[in-house]
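=== How it folds ===
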Amino acid sequence: SFFIVIKKPRQFYQKEYIVKYSEDTSSLLKESEDTDDKIKGRLTLREKLLLLKPLMKYMIPLCLVYIAEYFINQGLYELLYFNHIWLSEKEQYRWYQVDYQLGVFISRSSVNVFKINKLWTLPVLQCVNVAILTAQVFLRFIPNIWIIFALVLFEGLLGGAAFVNTFYKISEDIEAEFKEFSLSAATIADSVGISIAGAISIPAHNRICSLNLKM
């Protein structure tokens, strides 16, 4: 349909689509004159490895939050359904996702209003979420889906808060000449967390399903 709807031009002038090189550039991060030369220089591998050590206090909590968060998303959501309510099983799953993303959106937009300095509290609370929702899968002690909605919203709030506060803290705490590398390196934490969660949640989900629990 793309080639049918859009007409091919009779002539194509390549030069019109070339963006000319310009010496005028501006950095996304604030720079000071005394550190300008350091920022422009490339960090060696040894320097990068040394810089990773002080970043661990930011990256480890973020990674743990994402492990717990995506274990819930990938391993438990499909098992947290309620029978004989106004929503079908598929609709419940979809609304869990909407609810989760709403929590993430709210918390990622809140750093200018509410800042969290103790990042380690976030993975602890997210692990409490994992424990409650895992227990619900086995014991079915929560009587109402609205309570699950509240927990899922809380999960999203914690995940978004961990992400935005981690990078906010790095941007505030790390020296200007190392800030750009530090911000980019810290993104590894959430990617690793999601990957570990996927590796754990798939066999865990399959194992739970094989138990033939009473739903």
Notes: The chain has a mean pLDDT of 85. The two ends are 46 Å apart (CA to CA). The helical segments are 2-5, 36-40, 45-76, 89-108, 121-139, 145-173, 176-210.
